[in-house]
Amino acid sequence: MEIEQSTVLYEVVASDISSMISAGTLAAGERVPSVRKLSRQRRVSVSTVVQAYRLLEDRGFIEARPQSGYYVRSRQRPMREPAVSAPPRAPQLVGVHALVSRVLESAKEPGMVPLGTALPHADLVPTSKLRRILTDVARRMPDTLSTYALPPGREDLRRQIALRARDFGVRIDADEIVVTNGCVEAVNLCLRAVAKPGDVIALESPTYFGLLQIIESLGMKALEIPTHPRSGVSLDALELAIDRQKVKACLLMPTVSNPLGSTMSEAAKGRLVRMLAEKGVPLIEDAVYSALHFGDVQPRAAKAYDRTGNVLWCSSFTKTLAPGLRIGWVAPGRYYEQVQMLKFISSVGVSDLPQAAIASFLETGGYDRLLRGLRKSYQNQVQLVTHAISRHFPSGTRVTRPTGGYVLWVEMPKRIDALALYERALAERVSLAPGAMFSASKRYRHCLRVNCGIPWSAHTDAVLRRVGELAAQCGS
Amino acid sequence: MEIEQSTVLYEVVASDISSMISAGTLAAGERVPSVRKLSRQRRVSVSTVVQAYRLLEDRGFIEARPQSGYYVRSRQRPMREPAVSAPPRAPQLVGVHALVSRVLESAKEPGMVPLGTALPHADLVPTSKLRRILTDVARRMPDTLSTYALPPGREDLRRQIALRARDFGVRIDADEIVVTNGCVEAVNLCLRAVAKPGDVIALESPTYFGLLQIIESLGMKALEIPTHPRSGVSLDALELAIDRQKVKACLLMPTVSNPLGSTMSEAAKGRLVRMLAEKGVPLIEDAVYSALHFGDVQPRAAKAYDRTGNVLWCSSFTKTLAPGLRIGWVAPGRYYEQVQMLKFISSVGVSDLPQAAIASFLETGGYDRLLRGLRKSYQNQVQLVTHAISRHFPSGTRVTRPTGGYVLWVEMPKRIDALALYERALAERVSLAPGAMFSASKRYRHCLRVNCGIPWSAHTDAVLRRVGELAAQCGS
Prior knowledge:
Chain A is of the alpha/beta class.
């Protein structure tokens, strides 16, 4: 598998040991297996184990005691999680464009360390296999070039998406799906299908700034709902909000939200879908990170509980398979006609060749193995960044324990101004995502979203240490 | 060249002779060169000339006289053009979705003859060259797959677009261009950048239904401006309209409009751009057919006269190079920041690989030769369809003389209901585009747009004859 080929052996050994430490299988102060013993156990060379232990030492997991060997470092207490959010109860006109725009532009500058933007790393994309498939598709299906691309998109791709939907407990046919230019276009189409300018849309808080920007650009209003960092949106708060005012639609990420990484329980998803169907409020489900859930069992989507066509299920392959190809989809339930027509009106069809290539990869390319590798890599990277933040950030900092994906939400002590920190880090060529980007009510001024998508290195650790130092200086 | 390879020799000979007949070089009743003479002149075999003459006979250009040879048929008078349009003076809320939707869905059914939809024919796309380029690009530039695609799009493509803009008299740099998912997305972004729901947008009348749909979907209003079938929108009428009411933007096709095929004179384009700049009304220029202008000299775009950044110039490669790849662009002048941000918000970037492939084709693929071949093919096909309509449609039918592209606008006698004709043709598996699709005020009920993109055959002639018969039956 591509990912494992590119990961060197001692990294794998180090990752296993750090997992045992994190899980408590190896306790603080305990001696780790001797180099010779681990070399025999794992059937790797002595030098591989030495390299692995040096790496773990660099990362602060173990420490060498002279003449005695390596021991698990006594760690700080596990970091506390942020509390449930408490956004304002009134809908807000959104005004995040200017800040988001500035942050994204700065992140594009060459030589910038992208700690803010949530980009999957190029090393984790199965480039050579995709390339072979594209070449093959262009040869076998010349119509992908010459035929005018029209909605709802290629049938071979829609059939594969319908098949894979079963993994999320979703039973749909190919003809219920519209292929889109990524998940962002899907969400745009859904919002335009169910709501008009001035309408109120309920969201998690904090939420992905891209969703806030869509709402802003469509002249709608955002109603932020209290959200737990691990179990997701508060259903009681959501129900109360809907009863108290006209909410036109909900736009939620029930499985692996961004930036919190929360996932609602199965029971909560069922209750959510039933409640919204009863109240006649459509649910736009943004599922773009859900295939990157870390658990052994893939959680069911909210769409799996949909009996009335009230859930519009949006996702894409940009976070898992091919960031450059921008292929997403939506299963819009009873809004199918409106969504398909809006797709035609706003950009006609989706480029045919990338669709055919992704369909072919899903059929024969080992997508499941790819996902298993990605989840493992990202879980490991999230753990390493968490560990670095625990060592380097000001005391009192809290951090999420994401259920999947590759971002962390970091809540620093209230006195620390994340926007000032953003500016200072930028001057040192580190791009951060300040918390205010993730709220329509300009909350989270002491928070950051941190990207763990970059493969870990001593450099990343050094950068996080420096950001931690700058953070301490930004306290008032 | 791909196109010429796929066109057989006798087709080329026939096309040259029919051009001479249309141009009057060979007059009605005149004897055409003998088979032997033409064979010597053109250095082709006798049997090629015989085939060419038989084709011209089938097409009604010449007739055989026993023992004497072939003579130019005495033709009907050249068909009259439609008059300048006279739409209502008040802005209209648009309501074309339902009709357009029905027509497009019916056109997709298998076995349907697509006389309504304006689709370039697959035979005219340089598929094998594009395929080679795509394969090469995927091999040389693996980052096209693994890098997250972000606005404004690939620099290599934007540089090529800026270079080619010179052909239209437009002097812009690569960094003034945003790559889009086709021209339709470009127009959507521009309208959203310059206007809000409720605002009035001035358009040609009749105009492309896709533009009306965009306006409808954004809750804006359409103001149809009187338009001449060959010289385009009436500047006097446009100026009067702007003086009389608040017009937020103009959305026009100054070179090769759809469906009329009109092109404004250079002087008129200059006056249009100056007038709109003075009045502070931005011009969105839809230039999607302008590279298919039939003239020897490529007309300058309205954008060429833009000194203030007031013209947002939109176009694409879907009508010329690769319908399936959906690569378009916009040079939004002083609205660059808004358009780029809206592009990010509505669908992030454009798939990287098709961008790289088109950039590579533009560099080395012989795009100019491709365009020359397309113009010649389409001009020939437009001529043949016009000729067939002149023979088969009810007397009193008028037809445009398009300056480029591959559609005709057919104005039948007022008594003929084009919607009824559409339904009757549909029952015989022929898909038409009734005139009402092209107006916000439901005008043009006796008109049709006819697609000439299909390579001509005896079957097309038979289909047009049948449509003509049905039209006669639809008169009240």
